[in-house]
């Protein structure tokens, strides 16, 4: 943390189509559903996003109780610490580092913290489609999800935490790049991203500029923002990102 008398340089960028938020400058606030928990809203409609994403710093015995509204689905990913989740009529499940859950809009849930830790939470209005059933709650851990080379590059591995099936309108993926590896092109697409940088550092291309990024940064990428990435090292770079998928354009 910078001493108060030092110069105020910042990598923070908030633009109409993207945002880079290094968390060092982001003070926590409180949410009614998470009593006493330090919460940072990383993305929301106020930024331009069509979803909400949060970083929650949770202490043992803190947590939340949620009543299903049939509309909002919620994704959790444990960065560290230990949590217990009960969703719908399912059994109590443990979430520790790398553990994740996508809770169906149809399920009540209770989440409590057993050992202090950080949780990423993402909320989105589920987009129903006639003839496709809403998915059930899904719980897993990244260590059980296969990592596939991206477009043939063994140094760029992609894990899909949520199956790519029509009932799911959300992808939550982990990308890991060995030092020196990169996304193979500047991609531009209708889907948006909420990206949390888990490990390492590198250069992110957003719109028309290269920017330095590192672990704990958050990036929002709106629809059609040109984007790419180089991992610089010395350790591999790893990020978890949200993407809206498997739905047509609403007109
Ligand atoms: O899935 C994606 O769109 C991914 N290749 N984007 C990204 O990493 N910025
Ligand atoms: Mn992308």
Give the CATH level 1 class of the largest domain.
Answer: Mainly Beta
Give unreliable regions as ranges: none
What profile does the largest beta sheet have? 8 strands, antiparallel
Task: Name the ligand types.
Answer: (2S)-amino(carbamoylamino)ethanoic acid, manganese (II) ion
In round numbers, the mean pLDDT is: 97
Beta-strand content: over 45%
Q: How do the strands line up in the largest sheet?
A: 1-2-20-17-22-16-15-14
What's the number of domains? 2
* Helix-strand string: EEEEEEEEEEEEEEEEEEEEEE
The CATH architecture of the largest domain can be given as Sandwich
Structural class: mainly beta
Q: What is the overall shape?
A: globular
- Kindly state the number of beta strands: 22
Per the CATH scheme, the topology name of the largest domain is: Jelly Rolls
Find the CATH superfamily of the largest domain. Jelly Rolls
Number of helices: 0
Helix content: under 10%
Describe it.
The chain is mostly beta strands and 251 residues long. The protein has 2 domains: 27-143, Jelly Rolls, CATH 2.60.120; 144-244, Sandwich (Jelly Rolls). 0% of the residues lie in helices and 51% in strands. The chain has strands at 13-14, 18-21, 29-31, 34-43, 52-58, 63-66, 72-78, 82-87, 93-96, 99-103, 109-115, 117-125, 138-141, 148-150, 153-160, 170-177, 193-199, 201-206, 209-214, 218-221, 227-231, 237-244. The strands form 4 sheets. It has an 8-stranded antiparallel β-sheet with strand order 1-2-20-17-22-16-15-14, with no helix packed on it. The protein binds (2S)-amino(carbamoylamino)ethanoic acid and manganese (II) ion (MN). Manganese (II) ion (MN) binds at residues 187, 189, 193, 227.
């Amino acid at each position: 943390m910078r001493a108060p008398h030092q110069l105020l340089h910042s990598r923070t960028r908030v633009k109409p189509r993207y945002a880079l938020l290094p968390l060092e400058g982001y003070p926590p606030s409180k949410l009614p559903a998470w009593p006493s928990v330090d919460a940072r809203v990383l993305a929301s409609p106020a930024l331009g996003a069509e979803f909400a994403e949060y970083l929650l710093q949770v202490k043992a015995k803190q947590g939340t109780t949620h009543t299903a509204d049939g509309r909002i689905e919620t994704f959790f990913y444990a960065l560290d610490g230990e949590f217990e989740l009960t969703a719908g009529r399912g059994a109590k499940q443990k979430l520790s580092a790398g553990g994740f859950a996508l809770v169906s809009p149809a399920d009540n849930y209770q989440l409590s913290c057993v050992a202090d830790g950080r949780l990423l939470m993402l909320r989105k209005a589920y987009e129903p489609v006639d003839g496709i059933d809403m998915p059930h709650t899904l719980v897993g851990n990244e260590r059980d999800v296969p990592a596939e080379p991206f477009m043939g590059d063994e140094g760029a591995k992609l894990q899909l935490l949520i199956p790519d099936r029509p009932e799911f309108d959300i992808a939550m993926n982990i990308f890991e790049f060995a030092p020196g590896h990169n996304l193979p092109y500047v991609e531009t697409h209708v889907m948006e991203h909420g990206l949390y940088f888990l490990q390492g550092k590198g250069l992110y291309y957003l719109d028309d500029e290269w920017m330095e990024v590192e672990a704990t940064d958050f990036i929002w990428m709106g629809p059609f923002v040109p984007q790419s990435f180089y991992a610089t090292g010395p350790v591999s770079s790893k990020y978890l990102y949200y993407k809206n998928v498997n739905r047509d354009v609403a007109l």
